[in-house]
Amino acid sequence: MKRVITYGTFDLLHYGHIELLKRAKALGDYLIVALSTDEFNRVEKNKYCYFSYEQRKSLLEAIRYVDLVIPEENWEQKKTDVHEYHIDTFVIGDDWEGKFDFLKDEGVEVVYLSRTPEISTTQIKKDMAGGKDSEKLKG
Ligand code: C2G
Predict the structure, then answer these.
(1) Residue 126 annotated among the catalytic residues of the structure
(2) pLDDT tens-digit map of 15-35
(3) Nearest Cα to Cα of residue 104 among 83, 84, 90
(4) Ligand 1: which of 5, 7, 70 to mutate, judged by most atoms within 8 Å of the beta carbon?
(5) Which is the catalytic residue, given 22, 25, 47, 126?
(6) How many angstroms separate the CA atoms of 100 and 92, rounded?
(7) Does the reported pTM lie above 0.90?
(8) Does ligand 1 have an atom closer than 6 angstroms to the CB of 20?
(9) Which of 10, 52, 75, 92 is the most buried (most CB within 10 A)?
(10) Cα(31)–Cα(87) distance, rounded to whole angstroms?
(11) How far apart are CA 105 and CA 109, in angstroms?
């Protein structure tokens, strides 16, 4: 059984996230998502989520590609997570290209997948804030 892990905030879940999770699962048999907690997002990523950790967790658990959701509470845990969960492959979007190559020293394959263009949680928030004037929301 090939075990894959990925990390992220996954707020306002969208098709870019789904495409990432779908491709991540295709690299193995079991996919773990380490989901950034509200505190980690706020303190370390300066992200303020629309959905709480528990809400984001339940959304991810409803996705067919996801087998387990665990909390991401700090930057350092990846090094121990890969051993604790017997991970074969670490996967993340290529906006992080090169940032996690150190995991290769832990015997883990590191894969950076292309991001899905034109969609992001930030863009969704901007478009929704723009209301009827937003290009995206023109009926
Ligand atoms: N993603 C994507 N395409 C998009 C948007 C996001 O492929 N249009 C991917 C990101 O590259 C990431 C995952 O979806 O692999 C989750 O994205 P975020 O929630 O923005 O995660 P991020 O804040 O990058 O957190 O320790 C690592 C961090 O927790 C990663």
Answers:
(1) no
(2) 999 999 999 999 999 999 999
(3) 90
(4) 7
(5) 47
(6) 9
(7) yes
(8) yes
(9) 10
(10) 9
(11) 9
